Amino acid sequence: MRENWDDLRFVLAVAEEGSVNAAARRLGVNHATVLRRLAAYEDATGVAIFDKSARGYVVSGAQQRVIEAAREVDRAVQAVARTLQGMRAPLTGDVRVTSTDTFCQHVLPSVVSELRKASPELRIELLCTNSHLDLARTHADITVRPTDKLADDLVGSIGAPLGFGLFRQRGSGSSDWLGLCGPVSRSLIGRWMADELDPDRIVASADSFLVLREMAAAGQGMAPMPWFLGNEDARLEEVRGIIPDISVDIWVASHADLADVPRIAETRRALVAALYEMAPRLRGGI
Q1: pLDDT greater at residue 147 or residue 49
Q2: Which of 41, 78, 230, 279 fits as disulfide partner to 7, beta carbons 3.0 to 4.6 Å?
Q3: Using N-to-C axis directions, what is the helix angle for 31-45 and 20-27, rounded to 10°?
Q4: How far is 128 from 208, CA to CA, in rounded Å?
C-alpha cells in the first residue's frame, strides 16, 4: 500500500490525546474530519488501530508499534520543516517568543521595546501561556522560562535567577495558604509545597501567579510568587521565615535546529543580556 502521512498524523494525534475531540482541537479541525481520516487510514491498511470505548480511544497492544513508528515519522517531518525555515530565514522578520503570563505582562514588554529600538526591522510576537509550547513543531522560535532543567532538544542560556517569596494582604495577618494548580504546580516552588505543606491548609488555588497575587491582595491567604511580583505591589507584605530561599534559573532557549538562525540567535542573545541587567530585580531577596 501507499502510505499517506497526512492521514497518519491524525492517527498519531488521537493516540496521544486519547479522544477525537482533543485531537481535533490540537489539529485545528472539526470532529468529523478526524473521524473521516481515521476511517480512511484503517480502511487503507486493513488494521484497526484503536479500541474504542466510553473512556476514549486506546491503542491496543500490538498497534503500539504503529504509533511509535508514526512518532518517528512526525519527528522527521518536523525536522525537515525546521531546516527549511532556517535556510530561508532572513536577518529581519518575525520572531515568536513564548513565556509565562508573569513575564509577558511584567518583564518582557519593556525588554521588547528596547530591542525594537535597537533593531526596528525585527518584529517580536509574544505568546503568553503557562504551558510549555512545543518548539519542535515551530509553535514558537524562542522560549523564556524559569525552569530547573532545559529540555534535551533545546539550546539556550541563563539570563538571571528568579527568586520566590511568600506574600499576603498587608496587615491581614492571614495564615491560610493559597496553592498552585495546573502547569505552575510543577514549578520548583510548587513541588516544594507538594512535599512540605499539608494540603488541608490550602484554602484556594490558581494556575497563575498573577491570579494568586490578586487573591492574596484580596485577603484570601498567603501566596507564593516571584519575589519581584509581590514586592512591587503595595497591597502586599512579605511573610518571612516560612519558605526557604528558593530560586530558579530563567532560560532563554530555542530548538536546536533553529538555534543558529541569525534573527533567532540575535534575539535570544538580546533577551539574555536584558534579563542579566534586570537580575537584581528578578533575583530579589535570595
Answers
A1: 147
A2: 41
A3: 110
A4: 12
Q: Which of 68, 63, 30 is nearest to 47 (CA)?
A: 63
Sign of the CA dihedral running 258, 260, 264, 270: positive
- Residue 2 burial by Cβ neighbours in a 10 Å radius (0-12, 13-18, 19+): exposed
The helix (H) or strand (E) run that includes residue 162 is: strand 154-169
* 189 confidence band (pLDDT: 50, 70, 90): very high
Report DSSP letters for 201-228, one per residue: GEEEEES-HHHHHHHHHTTS-BEEEEHH
Separation CA 197–CA 195 (nearest Å): 6
What are the distances in angstroms from CA 217 to CA 82, 214, 223?
44, 5, 9
Helix (H) or strand (E) run with residue 98 in it? strand 93-99
CA atoms of 188 and 13, how far apart (whole Å): 30
Residue ranges in the chain assigned as alpha helix (H): 5-17, 20-27, 31-45, 64-88, 101-106, 108-118, 188-196, 209-217, 227-231, 262-277, 279-283
Query: The whole model's pTM is what?
Result: 0.67
Domains of the chain: 5-87 (1.10.10.10), 91-286 (3.40.190.290)
CA distance 220 to 283: 26
Q: Evaluate whether 169 touches 267 at the Cβ level (below 8 Å).
A: no
Can you say whether the dihedral through the CA atoms of 239, 234, 129, 100 is positive or negative? negative
Q: List, for residues 61-93, the tens digit of each pLDDT value.
A: 777 888 887 777 777 776 666 565 555 444 467
Count Cα atoms within 13 angstroms, Cβ side, for 110. Answer: 7
DSSP 8-state class, residue 156? E
